Each structure stands twice: as C-alpha cells, then as structure tokens.
Amino acid sequence: MYVNFFSSNLDGIASNIIRVESDILRGLPGFSIVGLPDTSVTEARERVKAAIQNTDFQIPPGHITVNLSPAEIRKNGSNFDLPIALAVLAASKELSKLDDEIVKKTIFIGELALNGEIKGVRGVLPMILDCYQKGFREFVIPEKNSKEVSLLKNIKIYTAKFLKDVIDYIKGDKILEKLQDTPLNTFNKCDFPDFSDVKGQFSAKRALEISASGRHNVLFLGSPGSGKTMLARRIPGILPNMTYEECIETTKIYSVCGKIQEDTGIVAERPFRSPHHTISDIALVGGGSNPKPGEISLSHNGVLFLDELTEFRKSSLEILRQPLTDKKISVSRVKYSHVFPANFMLVAAANPCPCGFLFDDIKQCTCSWQEQQRYKNKLSGPILDRIDISMEIARVRTEDLFSLNKAETSSDIRKRVIRTNNIQLERYKNEPFNSNADLSVKTTQKHAHITKDAIKLLKNTIEQTGMTARAYFKIIKLSRTIADMAESEFVEENHIMEAVFYRTLDKW
Questions:
Q1: In the list 231, 266, 353, 437, which could disulfide-bond 215, CB 3.0-4.6 Å?
Q2: What single-letter DSSP state applies at residue 192?
C-alpha cells in the first residue's frame, strides 16, 4: 500500500514542505533514506526500527527505501522520525486502514525515542506557520512542543506523546488532544533588576528612559565602577510589552535555535542578549552548516548589550552596520543565503581610554595621547554615527551613595515609556514602523514638525560641530522622542538642546 505523509524541513527561520514516502522491496534486509538527508536524518533508521518494534508492530523482511521529496532540498533535523515511521508502517501493510483525509491534510513532526515516545524538536513554530500559509490546516506535534505554539489562533494543532497514539489517530481509533490557544497576558513576566537599586546617575537614567521610549541606540562612556553595566541591565524592566506579532516573531527565532524554555515556551518578554567580547563573527551574525540566527537576531525586538565595546574585534563591530540601518542581517554562504530579522536596540558600554579614567574627576588618566587615539580608533566613524545617545557616566557621588532617599522604580519609569510609546503607535499607525528610531529621511520630514527657532539652533550646531548628515537626522529623531515625552506636538529648541547634549562622541 502506497501512502505518503507530509512533514516540514527548517530552512533558516523558514521551512519547506517535505513529502515522506516509503517502499519495501524483496531482497536482502536494509534501510535506506534518500533525498539529501544529513546525519541526523540518516540516523533515523535505527530510531524508527526500534520505536516500531517497541510499539508491537513488525517490519517484514526486505529492503526499506524512504524518500524525502523534493530531493534537491537538503534535509536536516530529527523531526522526520515520526512521518518516516508512519510511512514504513504503511508500506509494510501494518496499517490496514487509514483515514485518507487526515493523512492528506496533516503535517507530522516529531523525533522518536527507542521506546516509541515522541520527543520535542526545534523549529516547530516556524514550521507550522509556513505550512499553514501553504494550505495545510492540521498538525500533529510532540506534546513537549505544545507551549511553544500555544499562542497560535485558529489552527488545529494536536499533541501526541507516543507513536502508538498517532497510529491510532490516523486509523480513526483515537482522538488526539487538540491544543487550545492561550492569551498572551497569561504568561508570567520576568523579574528584571530595578532602577531603584541605582544610586544617583539621574542624567543616565533620563537617557535610558529616552532610549526606551523611542528605541534609540545608546553608548555609555565612563570609568570602571561608575555603573554603566548596572544601568544597562535594568533596561528590560522599563521597555513596553511585546505585541502578539512581536512575540510570534521572536519565539520563531528562539525555536529555530533550540533556546525555548520548557516551562514558558513563548518568549513573552523583550530579549536581553549580552554576548562576551570574545564572541566569533558567525556566533554574532548567524550561519553554520545548518544555518541558525546569531546573537544579533536573538536580540530581535529587544536589546543587544555589548559590554566593554572596545574589546570586541573590529570585524565583529563592523558587522553591526547593516542590521543597525536595515533592521535585518543577510547571511550568504556558498550553499545558501538567508535573511534573518535584527530589529534590536543597541546598548553599549566602554571605558573612554585604556586605563579608563579619562573622564574621571578623582583619578588621573595615565594614558599617552597616542594610546588614547589608538583606543578610539577601535570604533569606526560609521559605527559611532549609528549611535543615537552617547553619554559620559561619572562616578557616583559620595552623598548619593550614602543617601537614604528612595530612587524612582522601574515601574514608574515604565509607565512614562508606555505612554510615549502609545503616542508613537498612534502617529505611525499607517507606517511600516512604530518607533521614532525607525524614521527615514522622508518620514522624518513628514512627522518631525520642527519649529523655526529649533531649526535655526540645529543649523548653528551643525556648523560648529561639523557633524555628518546621519548624525543630523539622529538628533532630529531623538528630539522627536523627547518632544513626545513632553507630550509636545512640535520639536522645540529645548528638545534639540537636550538631544545635542547626548552627543558625547562628538567631543570624545
């Protein structure tokens, strides 16, 4: 009996529909899988044979051939185990009756343990979304992947724990449990460090509030121990909630990378990624033999924090140029080319010189002028131009350090950030973006609404500092966010002045 089953194959963060078919020919016993399988697919032979036998089914003697079609697409992953087992059983006539309607319109995904248990696999969410767009309406997935897809609406998703359950389902003898969609607001929120722990540093807190309100990139320069890292790690606690679409986008990336947490499943909080400065270029960008997103894409819709920025390899920092501008990263190799999403907020921290005390009021900088210049040259002009806010962080004053006054909490700051974010959502409801940081040259002219006095001030600033055109537009976008925080329709002189204040890089 010839029956084919359908599954899905990961291709970056997208997927392809794969037809799984099997035949058993007379001859010496054997088991072949064809269709450009990788090692993990080829090893399915042993897992499938053991799972079938331990589920009390028999495979007749002969040569088993399993074909994964289309043959020109390289297959990877262990998610083909379940459909391969079903196809082999159908070819061996162990499945005497099948519900053709179920088989024709269902995608089967799952790895098999030797005892017939269906184990979870990575990439289930993008597989379901892509296959749904291509016409499939029903899915059978491992029970362990149920939380990962629990946000999806109006899709028939059935979960199974053992191979025997799926066999009974396609024979029409059993009904699998249908997954119910879960509202986004039911997921537990993460506990982030609170801004109330930070003593003093009022200007830095203000800068981070502006950054979070408009999703602007930030660079802190300061001496060791001034609180740069402590401030940066508190940013997730003041960011607005993720939308449903953002949760799905982000969870897709984490699912492909196998970084979904079993207890939550869904990435419901904005990511905060903090790679070490020894990270390789591929780990930062993404790629590999089976291409996966890197840290840049894992920060999508969240924050990428680069501590000790000047310690990163220059090649790694130059990689940030494209995603900071295009909000995506293109990964091209000999055998493939993929585009991964990378709409993140860059937060970086660095010492201003090798010894770290160039801006310090107490300790004297011991670096020579040549050492300072070599240190600055680690960061290229194009990278620095893509930073919206650059600020000098002074050491905490003694009176602030010993003060008993309670500092403002992250919750209080977050309320203002959400209010400002809602203003932008309303303004850009007919645009393909939703934050001031994403304004283009054309849309800046459309939405900035700068007063004549503010334009005059900005013109004088450009002439005095010699800033680039990109820096000019960065100031306008930053001023637009400051105006939104003040609930002002127009960008005025004081908004421009504050935005220019956050340009320490121009004086560094």
A1: 437
A2: P
Tell me the C-alpha distance between 191 and 243, whole Å.
Answer: 19
Contacts for 128 with CB less than 8 Å, ≥ 6 apart: 8, 107, 139, 141, 149, 152, 155, 157
User: Does 211 share its domain with 134?
Assistant: no
pLDDT on residue 409: 92
Helix axes 81-91, 163-170, angle to 10 degrees: 50
Whole-angstrom distance, CA of residue 140 vs CA of residue 130: 15
Q: How far is Cα of residue 217 from the mean position of the Cα atoms in its chain?
A: 17
- State the pLDDT confidence band at 26, using cuts at 50, 70 and 90: confident
Is residue 277's pLDDT more than 60? yes
Residues 200 and 137 in one domain: no
Say what the pLDDT of residue 506 is. Answer: 59
CB 296 within 8 A of CB 304: yes
For residue 492, being part of any structural domain is answered with: no
Non-local CB neighbours of 397 within 8 Å, separated by 6+ positions: 200
- Any idea what the CATH number is for the domain that residue 89 is in? 3.30.230.10
Q: Between these two residues, 254 and 26, which has the higher pLDDT value?
A: 254
Give tens-digit pLDDT for 316-366. 999 999 999 999 998 888 777 889 999 999 999 999 999 989 888 889 999
Residues 196-222 have a mean pLDDT of 93
Length in residues, the chain: 508
d(CA 304, CA 347): 6
Other CB atoms within a 10 A radius of the CB of residue 411 amount to: 12
DSSP for 222-281, please give it.
Answer: E-TTSSHHHHHTTGGGGSPPPPHHHHHHHHHHHHHTT---TTT-S--S--EE---TT--H
What are the residues whose beta carbons fall under 8 Å from the beta carbon of 430, sequence distance 6 or more?
A: none
DSSP at 148: G
Looking at 394, 415, 438, the residue that finishes a domain is 438
CATH number of the domain that 267 lies in?
Answer: 3.40.50.300
Assess contact for 8 and 149: CB atoms under 8 A: no
Please give the span between the terminal C-alpha atoms of the chain, in angstroms, as a whole number.
75
Q: Indicate if 174 and 226 belong to the same structural domain.
A: no
**Taking a C-beta distance cutoff of 8 angstroms, is the pair 184, 126 a contact?**
no
pTM: 0.90
The per-residue pLDDT for range 391-450, each reduced to its tens digit, is 889 888 888 778 778 888 999 999 999 999 999 999 999 998 889 999 988 898 889 889
Q: Which two tokens stand for residue 268?
A: 């419901």
pLDDT of 1 > 70? The answer is: no
| Residue range(s) defining the domain that contains residue 392 | 195-438
Domain stop point among 131, 152, 178: 178
Residues 204 and 276: their CA atoms lie apart, in Å, by 23
